[in-house]
Known about the structure:
The complex is a heterodimer of chains A (252) and B (258). Helices cover 68% and strands 0% of the residues of chain A. Chain A has 252 residues and is an all-alpha fold. Chain A has one domain: 3 helical TM bundles of succinate and fumarate reductases. Chain B has two domains: 3-111, Beta-grasp domain (Ubiquitin-like (UB roll), Roll); 117-245, Alpha-helical ferredoxin (Fumarate Reductase Iron-sulfur Protein, Chain B, domain 2, Orthogonal Bundle). In chain B, the strands form two sheets. A five-stranded mixed beta sheet of chain B has the order 2-1-5-3-4. In chain B, strands 6-7 form a two-stranded antiparallel sheet. In chain B, a hairpin with a 2-residue loop joins strand 3 (69-70) and strand 4. In chain B, helix 2 (118-125) runs antiparallel to helix 7, helix 3 runs antiparallel to helix 5 (175-186) and helix 5 (175-186) runs antiparallel to helix 7. The radius of gyration of chain B is 22 Å and the shape is elongated. The interface between A and B is large, with 46 and 51 residues. Residues 56-59, 61-66, 82-84 of chain B line the site of FE2/S2 (inorganic) cluster. The site of iron/sulfur cluster (SF4) has 15 residues of chain B, from helix 4 and helix 5.
Amino acid sequence: MNQIQRFYGSSIGKKFVVAVTGVILFGFIAMHMAGNLKVFTGNTPSGVPHIDEYALFLQTLGAPMLPKMMGLWIARAVLLVCLVLHVVTVILLSQQNRRARPIPYVRSEKQAASVASRLMMVSGLVILAFIPFHILQFTTGNIQIGNRTFVHGHVYSNLYGGFSVWYGALGYAIVVTLVGFHLFHGLWSLFQTLGLDNPDRNNKIRAFSVVFSVIVTIGFVLVPLAFITGLMPSPVDYDPSLLNQINSTSNH
Amino acid sequence: MRIRLQIWRQASRDDSGHMDTYNLDGVNPDMSFLEMMDHLNEDLTKKGHDPVAFDHDCREGVCGMCSMVINGQAHGPKQGTTTCQLYMRHFNDGDEIFVEPWRSQAFPVVKDLVVDRSAFDRVIQAGGFISNHSGPKPEPNSILIEPEVAEQALDAATCIGCGACVAACPNGSAMLFTAAKVSHLGLLPQGETERYPRARNMVKQMDKEGFGSCRNYAECEAQCPKEISIAFISRLNTDYLKASLVEPKDRRGKMKSQ
Ligand code: HEM
Ligand code: SF4
Ligand code: FES
């Protein structure tokens, strides 16, 4: 316990926590983005959108070993712990940084720090504010944007509704662009924090950050863009029992 | 040349301080920045005003005393130089030049542009040394060092302890300085022995002095007069993480089978 306290008490120890939780959150973000792309792959032969089927797959994560929803709740718990640790730690670090420079410069010229690196707290706080909103809109349906009624599990239809109005699509696009900014600096930065960067690989690690931050941003933006421009077919009602059929087959 | 200076004036540690404006005539383009400051001070003294206090010593880029943030950059706009190596020909006639002290909680302003950098001394005292015996020394060539490693250690050793990294960092972090010292000693066989306790103790003191944390902006590297690489910060992180998470604390304890 003492050792953990000493480690977390140091600035490098705190940055280690930010970096490790950042990697886990990035893993989630990357998979979330990839999963979203299922909206573009159409329907199963029985007419269930692939994205709805994918949502069901997430609910039955770990089946048959784990009961329905259990795998998902474990994943949610891990992510929540990471998010809380990440946010609490960056706040502690920012306080330390603010104390370290009590009087600002009258003139200050930056030479190296990227825009993304200087916006870490801004992009982070926007993401933080967005998360509960996003869950209330697309997971629980408590917040409705557009005038399509929310139906649990009917992801395609809910996305169609949520992105049918310009502010729903635009707001989402802005937030995921900020996620891209966060990753643009963060993905490289975490290697440096973990002591894994060196002049031999610096170019490759930076290229990795650029490529992944751009891919993640584009992948996320494509979905609202496709809906708002009317490229996506309107949702077709289907019998919810079809979903249950998929569920029972995937349980065997 | 004629220039207009905006300089931070602060009578003492407790004074709140302010920017003052000075118009200076007869600046020779071949004057160093410090000579220009001398010229200003002569002018001020003649007029019966208090001259601007600033630190300087070697005036050839090796002592690290000439701490000034000039136009928002530590040691001024020229890369890889100290203030004393900056010349007025790097500016234009009629320029307005802002001169401020290092801004850091850990480097309190003593007077005008003079700051107290003894926080760095305490970081060094915490581990920036090697423990050596006072007996007969081995034949120097008997310790072999890979040339590339020796060069790397010497790159780190060029740090003059000026504090520009702290001044330049938006977080007021001293990671580049600490990393340079930890690496310069830890890379060589004489300092390798204390590599991990050194990293642990110097980082502990660094945090205790009130420096900020590293967000990997790389502003320090860009403004360091010796262009010390942030690769050393990565190396310090490795050393510190290893010292805290991997290195055994109980090296000699007994173990049981299971
Ligand atoms: C959604 C997922 C998120 C991901 C994938 C993510 C990822 C990362 C990564 C990889 C880093 C770099 C770590 C390092 O420098 O070693 C980082 C740093 C940071 N994150 Fe996040 N983050 C997320 C959410 C947030 C949130 C909600 C905040 C809210 C305040 C935030 C604020 C910050 C800040 C301020 C830093 C810089 C910390 C420092 O270097 O002092 N992040 N993040
Ligand atoms: S690392 Fe560079 S800027 Fe920092 S104290 Fe050493 S020489 Fe000065
Ligand atoms: S006066 Fe010695 S480095 Fe500038």
